[in-house]
Amino acid sequence: MSSVVEALRRGEPVVLPTDTVYGLCCDASTAGPTERLYALKRRDLSQPSALLAASVDDLLAAVPELDRSQIRTGAFTLILPNPARRYPWICGTTPEAIGVRVPDLPEPAAEVVRALGVVVATSANLHGGPDPCSVGQLAPELRHCPVVDAGQLPGTPSTVVSLTGPEPVVLRVGSAQYDPSH
Q: What range defines the domain where residue 88 resides?
């Protein structure tokens, strides 16, 4: 795992398994790695990505203004208010909101993410391509990236929920059912 952590620290994108699909990840601390990840993925910088953490505490260390009570772990990507406008390079055209994710990571991936605290994460595909649930499904353009292989993953992406307004809004139905009472 140390080679994957070192690649992240050098600003290189890596492929990590989550609890849903494989993710293309990079160091979140500066804009450069995110710009390289977007170029590799052929994704426009105006589109947001998410911060991925191995624990709620790691996420709150990176974005302390977040409301702990709104954070769900597991197969959810949450769009939360970002009053300090942290990590603007991953927020696309909405720096006042930030995507966050605390998945149930397989242990090798959790070890990698814990080493950095948080990483930028998006699905490990070329823009618009299918979400890979195995390393063999990675696009050829992504196969040079360091990879943590956890075998076959479920294959349905996370549920995306915006919590930036008065009521939660499910933006993408995914592998988890969002219940606002929990």
A: 2-172
| CATH number of domain containing 129 | 3.90.870.10
Measured distance CA(72)–CA(132) in Å, rounded: 23
Q: Is residue 56 part of a domain?
A: yes
Our count of domains for the chain comes to: 1
Say if 155 falls within a structural domain.
Answer: yes
3-state DSSP assignment of residue 11: coil
CB-based contact 14:22 (threshold 8 Å): no
Tell me which residue of 33, 49, 29, 38 sits closest to 116, measured CA to CA: 29
Tens digit of each residue's pLDDT (9 = 90 or more) over 5-45: 999 999 999 999 999 999 999 999 999 999 999 999 999 99
Helix (H, G, I), strand (E, B) or coil at 16: strand
Strands (E), the chain: 14-17, 22-27, 50-53, 76-81, 97-101, 118-123, 159-162, 169-172
